[in-house]
Amino acid sequence: MPPRDRLETYLAAMTAPDSVEEEYAPDAQFFAVIVELRAQAARDDDYRDHFDRSDRVFEAFLERALREAAADYEAESDDDAGEIPPAEVASTLQTLATGGMLRWATTADRGWVDGTRRGARRYLETVLPRIDADA
Q1: How far are the Cα atoms of 34, 40, 102 from residue 51, in angstroms, in the given order?
Q2: CA-to-CA distance for 35 and 41, rounded, in angstroms?
Q3: Which of 3, 52, 60, 63 is the most buried (most CB within 10 A)?
Q4: Nearest residue to 63 (alpha-carbon basis) of 3, 126, 2
Q5: Could you tell me the pTM of the whole model?
Q6: Distances (CA, A) of 62 to 39, 67, 77, 89
Q7: How far apart are CA 69 and CA 128, in angstroms?
Q8: CA angle, corner 15, sides to 9 and 31, nearest 5?
C-alpha cells in the first residue's frame, strides 16, 4: 500500500472504524476497551507505562509512513517550503487518532467524522511537502 494511502487508512480507522473494510480494522467495541484501559492509566503506573510504549510504537509507524509519503511527494515536486520534523507530524496524528478513538467510543453522534477526516487530509496536504524525509 502506498505510504499516503497507509496514512489515510490509519486516520480513517481511528476516526471512522466502520469505513475501513479490512479484516483487522478496529471496531466500536475495540475503541471502548481501549478507552476503559486508558482510563485506568490515569491511576495505574503499569497501564500508563503500557500506553507510553504503545504511543511510541504508533508514532514510530507514523513517522516512517510520513517520511515515505514525503519522499514520494518530493519526487513529484521541486517545491521546498521549509522543513518540518516527521516526529512533530506523527505526534499530531497520534493525538488526533487518540481523540478520535475516545470520541467514537464515548459518543453516539458521528457528525464530527467527515469534517475531522477532511481536516486531517488538508493538514497532510499542507505538511507532507514540508516534511524532512531524511530526518
Answers
A1: 10, 10, 14
A2: 10
A3: 63
A4: 3
A5: 0.71
A6: 24, 8, 22, 8
A7: 7
A8: 105
27/9 Cα distance (integer angstroms): 14
**55-86 exposure pattern, b = at least 16 Cβ within 10 A, e = fewer:** eeebbebbbebbbbbbeebbeeeeeeeeebeb
Beta bridge partners of 134: none
Q: Hey, where are the domains in the chain?
A: 3-16+27-130
Angstrom distance (rounded) from CA 113 to CA 102: 12
Cα(133)–Cα(74) distance, integer angstroms: 9
Q: What is the DSSP letter of 86?
A: H
Sign of the four-CA dihedral 70, 50, 45, 27: positive
Query: What is the rounded distance in angstroms from the CA atom of residue 99 to the CA atom of residue 118?
Result: 16
What cell was used for 71? Answer: 519522499
Mean pLDDT by 10 residues, the chain (135 residues): 88 84 84 91 90 89 89 67 86 92 84 91 92 82
Q: How far apart are CA 131 and CA 96, in angstroms?
A: 18
